[in-house]
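Researcher: I've been going back and forth with a colleague about how HAMP domain-containing sensor histidine kinase might be arranged in three dimensions. Neither of us has a model we trust, so I'd like an independent prediction. The organism is Bradyrhizobium zhengyangense, in case that matters for your notes. Sequence below.
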Amino acid sequence: MWNRPRFDLKVRLTLRVAAISAACFAAISAYFLITADRAAHARIDDIAAIVAKTLELQQGKVLWTASPRADFPNLDPVSAYVMTPGLCLAFRGPAGEMIQRFCSGAPVTADLPPQIFTAFYHGLFDPGREAARPVILRGTKLGEAVVSVDPAVQTAEAWHEAGRLMLALAIALPLLCVLVYAALARALRPTHMIRAGLERIAANDLTARLPPFDLAELSAVRDVFNHLAESLDTALAERAELTRKLIALQDEERRHLARELHDEFGQSLAAIRALASSARQTAAQECPSLLGECDGIARTASGMMETLRGALFRLRPPDVEELGLVASLEGLVAGWNGRSRGETRFAIRFDGTFETLPATISANLYRIVQEALTNAAKHAGATKVNLELAMHADEIALAIDDDGRSTDPVAKSGMGLLGMRERVAALRGRLSFEAGLQGGSALRVVIPLTAAGPQALEHAA
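Model: Here is an independent structure prediction for HAMP domain-containing sensor histidine kinase. You can compare it with whatever you and your colleague have in mind.
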């Protein structure tokens, strides 16, 4: 299945905040540039109006004094008041010819705008646009007053102002990201506790609970988590109780079936053997040719008796409560070693004392080992099986390793593995079945001592 790449939530949210902040700064910068461009054009429009009015007054003065020396147009008087770096004043005649032009030089600066900003600014605005105002006297248009600003100067001024915003952005944005990341890390710190709680739930520790959180959203998650843990604990307790009842019913049915087989089938086989022995005595006196058939009937009855004893042993094992778990398991292993006739070797080792375990725990452990040995010998074809049962400070551990065929557990053991899982689940334990490191299979069962009752806990302590 395709897995999507994972990103840290704090990093993702911080990047989103940074992107939004950068977009806001860009919008503010664009608004500032637009406002500055409009102000610059409004300024040269006002200057053009002043120049046109000044020229009109000059021409009126010439006509009023009837001076033979027509000092028109004269841009020097107005330039002393309105000239700024890069500003150009001009008078254009009625035919469009430039009669007079006066420009101030651009300041020499080392802080030139980058080419990319210059291209962007020239593409977005028109820094070299002229502002023209007509010069009219007595209804006659004498020409136009033309005012413009050097595009390089206007671009440099815009870059100077935008550079301050970019400097503020360069300082504020990383600081904002650090503060947002720190705030998110603090706000999301409880998620580590939520993850730890989920891991405990996954490990079948249903006592995991989450403490109250400051954030309302995480508090809602905490309430749902605790409710889920309580519900799972209750459901598993009910399931375990039902499983115990089903297992007890199954064991009772096995004991009943064992009694029926022993009382009915066993007596019938004993009667057949007795009749075969009697028929053999009669045949030996009257019809020796029937001795072979009588012996065959006796052998068949003996074989069926042996098979019946094995079935009865599996259906109704020795009383674990009376013999003890250790003695019962040693007898089980000895029986398998005896029936294997050298084909399979079983070995068992104990670590700890198990005399104080309740009968329910001992019986379930015996059944689990019995089913595991049957799987290893009959289904996996193992030639060597090692068992180890150990009692630790807070749990009972069972390990069974064999050198048989390492196949699918369900296909190998059928309903047997399911039965073992149900017994382990009823004891609130854990079961794992997997391939061994050097071939074969490895069965691991861990049962907490809390399932074994207070006696076992006191003994272990």
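Researcher: What would you highlight for our discussion?
Model: I'd start with this: Residues 408-413, 452-461 have pLDDT under 50 and may be disordered. After that, consider the following. The radius of gyration is 51 Å.
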